[in-house]
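Bench notes, bay 3.
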Amino acid sequence: MSDAPALLRVEGLTKHFPVHGGPLNRRVATVRAVDDVSLAVAAGETLGIVGESGCGKSTTARLLMRLIEPDRGRLLFDGREVGAAGGIDVTTLRRQMQMVFQDSYASLNPRMTILGSIAYAPRMHGLAARAADARAEALLDRVGLEPRQFARRYPHELSGGQRQRVNIARALALQPRLVILDEAVSALDKSVAAQVLNLLADLKQQFNLTYLFISHDLNVVEYISDRVLVMYLGQVVETGPVAAIYGRPRHPYTRALLASKPTLDPDRRTISLPLTGDPPNPIDPPSGCRFRTRCGFADAVCAARTPPLAAPLGHPPDAHLVACHVPAAQQQAIHGH
């Protein structure tokens, strides 16, 4: 992790969803969507979160924004606990932390003009209408949309890439310090996605932003991130600097993910499946290490205890942490054979 102090720190974040059924609609099971997740994002950095669909990435984002209330866990923003006495409330948090969603159309009110959508939040927070409109126009220009051409349009008149630029401008309208990007470019064509990624990099520098970038696309995460956090079935299995995660992955799951990356290089084609089977059901996850049912290195200890997220045995403490009991699995991941 960067030497900068943590702007966002999460400790033990947990969210379980009840499943109801039967004639009386009673609680019959629990989906363990996010289980004891801890992370930190330093001021000015980009933390990428990756993992298969259903691993808890998007639920984590919604928990951070308090769109969903967590069951347990502490959230500290700039050293102040959210919701605690003497800390900060959710309204203040949302002025400092904004989110860009995957579905660019569903994120915008179809009855509001583009200018109105961007200016809405500043107006609600007390900025005069004329000043809010001026800020919205400036942000439109900054994200590459000419205000005179786009300000009076409606969402259905824009392309997907243009709408996502509007959503980015809207997220910046309250002048936040941290922006959560939840699959923000995954629905876009590759060329459009590349333009938006370059825009995000420029905006980060111009506005001194911190990003939490969530995606299933490993190439995109490698391009934009400073550090990476890998999730599997609601838990963190590995985290570290982007060069370490992509160059020397320590967890068998991370290694399998990287082996499944698409490539145009014929010499790097994947011959054998890097990972077999589907992820277990989050309603009834395996005991101990949740990856053990798909891991070729699983041992008795893997079923008995949940591995802590820590530096491997025999390694000095560093910023590259892994949740794995079996040194042989970590060694294979490190040396790639």
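Next record in the batch:
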Amino acid sequence: MQPLLNISNLCKNFKTATGLFTSRQKKAFGPINFTLEKSQTLAIVGESGSGKSALVRTIAGLLKASSGDIYIKGQPISSLSSQQRCLSVRMIFQDPSTSLNPKTTIEKILNAPLELNTDLDPESRQQQIFDTLKLVDLLPDYLTFYPNMLSSMQKHQVAIARALILNPDIIIADEILATLDISLRFKIVNLLLKIQKIKGVSYIFVAHNMHLVRHMSDHIMVLHQGEIIEQGLTETICENPQQEHTKYLLLNHQPDYRK
């Protein structure tokens, strides 16, 4: 049976200037290989600059790969239309205060992906919005609100709803807990786990905190200088890390999350 997501020899290089008329290629990551199954969570961890964000942005289609392949349900992602890609992979950005348009109501924020990527009529779109709001524990009353009228927690709930609105197979969460305090991280993690149980969605979860990813991930991939130095089952890596850098990541974070 083919995996939901298959990443094969994926590489990304950036061109950097070395002089007035000269430049060179700098590796962001690669080659990267991994698979993701339905209803699984893969945590990608590593220090700042290890290539985590560049990798997930490439998978999400925000960056173009330099080489390698991305397959979703056996199909090369390059063969999918932008609509098909949006229906397969969605992304939650780190700070909803900057990723949510402050001049747009929550209803319009959630309706836009449906208008652009589906053939649903207005009534069906409205029902999809109501169902998604319920899934992220928000009332329909919030649809008339603007992002700056919401609390930090509520902004995160809206960002999650926007990612969920098209019922994607995969949601990529790029350091979405970094701006929240401990109690709110607890609530968001539980919300994501509840959604996964109901919808069967798969997550790619980028984070620094190994204690947090241990709670919510099935597999861990450790990046260092753009390369995978260790990957495997979460419990196996956390209990018996093989690489010194992985051991450092485990020791460098004090537990700030408890079940």
